[in-house]
Every structure is written in C-alpha cells, then in structure tokens.
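2024-03-11 09:14:02 INFO worker-7 job=invfold-0412 stage=load source=structure_tokens
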C-alpha cells in the first residue's frame, strides 16, 4: 500500500511547498520542497522528495501548504496478490474551508460477494474530534432503512465510535460477510466537528483484489454525471455505468432520472425512482433506462426532500481477463456555483511507465442547466 501525490504549479514563479506528516502518535516536523514554474511533481510519499526513510510504515495524514496557488491530486496505490498495481483517487481536504458539526453522508457501501468497504476519516483540525459511524441498509417499500450490524476490523455492531487525534486519521474496514448494500453516515459528537470522510470499495475475485474505488461524502438535491455503456452482460471489453442514490430523509421520496446525449438532447422519457426513508438504490444505468448501445451522455438526478440526496457514480469495465474493474465518475452538484477560472488536471499518463501501459481519458460536461462553455485543452509534458 502506498500513497501518491501530484502537484502542478501553473505559475510563472516557483511554488514553495511546506509539508508534514501526522499520525496518532503526533505531528512531524515541517519540511519543504520547491516546484519550478509551469512544472509539476508526481511522487509516492515514500520517495526521497518527501523525506520518509526507506521502509517506513505509516497510517495518518499528509498536510501541506503553498505560497502560490497549485493543483493537486492524491492517489492510493494497492499492489494486489498478483503483484499488480491498483490505483484509486483520494480526496484532498481544503484546510481553509470552515469546519462544522453535523453528519457526512457516503452514498454507497458494499459488503459480501467479494466486496468490502473501508470508511476513512481525516481530522483536518488541530484538536481531537469524535463521533459515530453507522451503516444503513437499502430499506424496502414497506419499511424505512435503519442501522444494520456489520462485521468489521473493530468487531460487529450497528454503531462504531471514532476518536481521532489532531491532524490524524481513522479507518474502519468491513469483513465482507454481510452480503448487503447501503449507505454510511458519519455523525460528529456533541462539541466536535466533522472529519473529512471517504469510502473505498474493494472487490476480490478468486482471492485476488482486482479493483478499488474511492468516493467522498456528498450531499445535494440535483446532480449530473457522465454515463457510458456499450453493452449489458459481462463480456471482456464491456463498459457500464453504475449509480447509487441515498435518501437522507426518514420519509420515502421519489427521485427523477433524466438521460441526455452529449449534445444535451433528451435520450428518453424521465424515469421516476422510489427510495425508502433513509434508504438507497444501486443500479446499472442500463437497468434504469432503455438505452441504445453504445451510449455516451449525461444522467441528471433530481428530487428528494429538503434533507437532500447522496449520489455516487461508478464506471465499470470487464477487462480482457474478465475481471470487474471500477473507478469513480464524480457527479456534479447543480447547486454549486460554476466557476470561470482555468481548471487544471495535475497529472496525466500516456504510454509505458516501467512495465505498465497507460492511457488518460478527459471528460468535460456542463454541470448545470443552461451552462455553455468553449475551451481549449492544453497538455503540458514534463
């Protein structure tokens, strides 16, 4: 297991990065690196650039600041039982954002049938924080969903307490025994604030971990997400889109799903979906819509009560070996104010790196109704 970081400096002057590591044992000393103008650095955290001694084992956090604006992406690397490298994205918490008490909603977890889920919490503050984690089932048409007992690395319970030292982290991993789907709620204790929350899905086939994907907490009432499906079934080369929607209210609700082509035209009638109170649905896009394959477009998700929805988008692919691979396709929250500033992808990879071959796919779409934009995609190669 390893963590990678890519930092891009788009400025005409060097970016001076100050950083430190923190664990439950305490906060390390500040260190510095400099990134030249119009350049980037892409390294694993155990490489010399970040000052960790060879062979260091660490579970905690990496905190950094820059004297000029930079773009950042974090990646989690797992080397599986076959020695293959699996990558998934990790959220980067903006420490300038205000913290508050409340509940963070993770729209999907899976446990059983080869799947496990890890709930990862990061304390962005300089004080200890605490609270509880609960796993909720999907519910039924006759009954709202409630907390369910899940076997984890910390035992079996319907509610798990967490206490996180300042700038440190906490991880709860399901055992893969329940055979259930649902959502996760992270609630701060009285007098505490919420951590940054993430769920990482892992899928094993024949005792080999073949795929991982990480999804941060999200809450809103209207979302858009990219969808791509070329076939139903599980033949090698099949690409599909998965959607999970959690109802954050105790009362049942109806959510409307709209399918649009890449030019914004409707690709079929809206589909209403009923979700139990505190419940969740998890479906493939081709199970919800009458699609013509291959399809590339946008799914718009709206409705629910004032409590809102938590939405997860997944891109699924069966590779040449028939393994089930997944990655996230983050939904765009229509409630967010669109920006006009330049957007940066801190890293892309194309071609061979060592013994591995890579390609990168860029997906751009309007995040709200009536939004239009014209732009150029510039690739800067180090």
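2024-03-11 09:14:09 INFO worker-7 stage=emit residues=382
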């Amino acid at each position: 297991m390893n963590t990678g970081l890519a930092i891009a400096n788009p400025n005409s002057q060097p970016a001076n990065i100050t950083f430190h590591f923190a664990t439950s044992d305490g906060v390390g000393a500040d260190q510095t690196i400099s990134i030249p103008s119009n350049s980037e650095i892409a390294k694993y955290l155990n490489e010399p650039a970040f000052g960790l001694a060879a062979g260091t084992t660490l579970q905690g956090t990496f905190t950094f600041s820059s004297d000029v604006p930079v773009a950042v992406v974090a990646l989690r690397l797992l080397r599986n039982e076959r020695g293959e490298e699996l990558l998934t994205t990790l959220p980067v918490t903006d420490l300038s954002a205000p913290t508050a008490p409340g509940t963070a909603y993770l729209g999907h977890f899976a446990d059983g049938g080869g799947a496990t889920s890890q709930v990862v919490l990061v304390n962005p503050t300089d004080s200890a924080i605490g609270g509880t984690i609960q796993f909720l089932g999907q519910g039924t048409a006759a009954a709202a969903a409630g907390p369910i007992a899940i076997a984890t690395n910390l035992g079996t319970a319907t509610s798990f307490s967490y206490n996180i030292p300042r700038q440190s982290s906490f991880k709860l991993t399901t055992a893969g025994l329940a055979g259930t789907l649902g959502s996760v709620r992270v609630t701060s204790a009285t007098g505490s604030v919420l951590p940054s929350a993430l769920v990482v899905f892992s899928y094993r086939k024949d005792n080999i971990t073949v795929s991982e994907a990480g999804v941060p907490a999200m809450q809103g009432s209207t979302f858009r997400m990219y969808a791509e499906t070329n076939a139903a079934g599980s033949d090698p080369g099949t690409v599909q889109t998965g959607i999970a929607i959690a109802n954050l209210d105790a009362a049942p609700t109806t959510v409307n799903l709209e399918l649009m082509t890449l030019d914004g035209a409707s690709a079929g009638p809206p589909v209403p979906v009923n979700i139990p109170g505190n419940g969740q649905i998890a479906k493939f896009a081709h199970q919800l819509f009458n699609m013509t394959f291959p399809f590339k477009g946008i799914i718009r998700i709206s409705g629910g009560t004032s409590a809102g929805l938590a939405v997860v988008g997944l891109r699924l692919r069966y590779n040449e070996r028939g393994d089930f691979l997944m990655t996230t396709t983050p939904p765009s929250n229509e409630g967010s104010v669109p920006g006009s500033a330049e957007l940066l992808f801190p890293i892309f990879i194309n071609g061979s790196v060592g013994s591995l071959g890579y390609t990168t796919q860029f997906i751009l779409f309007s995040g709200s109704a009536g939004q239009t934009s014209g732009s150029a995609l510039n690739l800067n190669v180090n």
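2024-03-11 09:14:09 INFO worker-7 stage=report msg="DSSP finds one helix and 29 strands in the chain."
2024-03-11 09:14:10 INFO worker-7 job finished
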